[in-house]
Amino acid sequence: MTPFLAEFIGTALLIIFGAGIVANVNLKDTLASGQTPWVLITSAWGFAVFVAAYATGQFSGAHLNPAVSVGLAVIGKFSWSLVPKYVLAQLLGAMTGSFLNYLFYIDHYKRTEDEDAVRSTFCTGPAIRNFKNNFFSEFFGTFILIFGIYFIASPSIEIKGMEVTQYGIGALEALPVGILVWVIGMSLGGTTGYAINPTRDLGPRIVYQLLPRKNKKPDWSYSWVPVVAPLCGAVIAGVVYNLLMH
């Protein structure tokens, strides 16, 4: 298992379980259709992070999120040269997980006419459309995530032949990170759906765009927010951490 394959598999698992709960409650005629308490969705996403990180942490540090890779690079605990490869693996993993969800729920997608509900099973959207405030929501949520991870991540793996000690999420760190994502969702997720992960939003949005549906609403005008804001949040979290700790 290479680190890059681990990031691919881990991100795919993250989307299968995380976006899967949204499909389960939002699509028509599933056994859980209409069961949409926020605590159910946020809990599923928290456990999705836990399972995906627990499974792959020993191989890649389980970043599963470009914001994590960038954030760790900013504080010197991850090599900038590896960031593009990790991000590519994460993007492809998110797309694969999203497509597998689509195949799994395909009969329910065919019955669901509410295109906003369909889109929600792939990507996020704002409760109130205000780009400035939406950007701040994603920025701040990711800032909290990355700043918290700084105090959880450990040197869990050394990538062979690259002479770099890998900081990330191992088995022991998977649970607290899952809890961190859970509480971010419960407390800060109501404004934008807390993507807090560029590939988590962009990969499935691309898959949704490619689906053979007549009335697709991928909302590309908003799509830059859950990509740019989390990256900015990660960078600023790194800057603040460096100022405090050095």
* CATH homologous superfamily identity: Glycerol uptake facilitator protein
Low-confidence stretches: none
Q: Gap between N and C termini, in Å? A: 35 Å
CATH architecture: Up-down Bundle
Helix-strand category: mainly alpha
Number of helical segments with 4 or more residues: 10
| Share of helical residues | 55-70%
In this structure, how is the largest beta sheet organized? 2 strands, antiparallel
Output the CATH topology: Glycerol uptake facilitator protein
Spell the H/E element sequence: HHHHHHHEEHHH
**Biggest β-sheet: strands ordered side by side in the sheet:** 1-2
Q: What general outline do the C-alpha atoms trace?
A: globular
Number of domains: 1
Radius of gyration: 17 Å
* CATH level-1 class: Mainly Alpha
Number of strands: 2
Please give a structural write-up:
The structure is a single chain. With about 250 residues, this protein is mostly helical. It has one domain: Glycerol uptake facilitator protein (Up-down Bundle). The chain has 10 helices and 2 strands. The chain has helices at about 5-25, 40-60, 65-75, 85-105, 105-110, 115-120, 130-150, 170-190, 200-210, 225-245, and strands spanning about 155-160, 165-170. Helix 2 (about 40-60) runs antiparallel to helix 8, helix 7 runs antiparallel to helix 8 (about 170-190) and helix 7 crosses helix 10. It is globular, with a radius of gyration of 17 Å. The N and C termini lie far apart (about 35 Å). About 50% of the residues are buried.
